Amino acid sequence: MAARVTYRRRNPFNTKSNNVKQVKTAGSKITVHHIGKKATAPKCGDTGVQLPGIKALRPAKYASVPRRFRTVSRAYGGHLCGAAVKDRIIRAFLVEEQKIVKRVVKEKLQLAKAAEKKQKSRK
């Protein structure tokens, strides 16, 4: 049977934020150490994978760590993984290419109509 111990903080309930570990001291007294919550690493907004190169910390801790632990030097550094950024770049390029193709096809149709009108007016 576990020894009875009292919490060291004001919260008397066994909740997620009040996890404790029983520790036996040098004087054979059992005390409790409060355990902090486990941190989860930030995830990519598009793919949902953990972002490589960024430390997994509790949200408030990010304010006190240097910038190099919070981000990577790339566009969308601390928010998207490299694969997601690559997909966005490719998608943007293809959208631009599609716009150019549409414009060229439209110009060809206009030229064809103009040539048709010329032929009809000659006859």
UniProtKB/TrEMBL annotation:
Task: Write out the GO cellular component annotations.
Answer: ribonucleoprotein complex; ribosome
Which one Pfam family would you cite for this protein? Ribosomal_L34e
What stretches pass through the bilayer?
none
MF terms from GO for this chain are: structural constituent of ribosome
Gene Ontology biological-process entries: translation
Q: Which UniProt keywords apply?
A: Ribonucleoprotein, Ribosomal protein
Query: Carries keyword Mitochondrion?
Result: no
Q: Which family does it belong to?
A: Belongs to the eukaryotic ribosomal protein eL34 family.
Name under which the protein is recorded: Ribosomal 60S subunit protein L34A
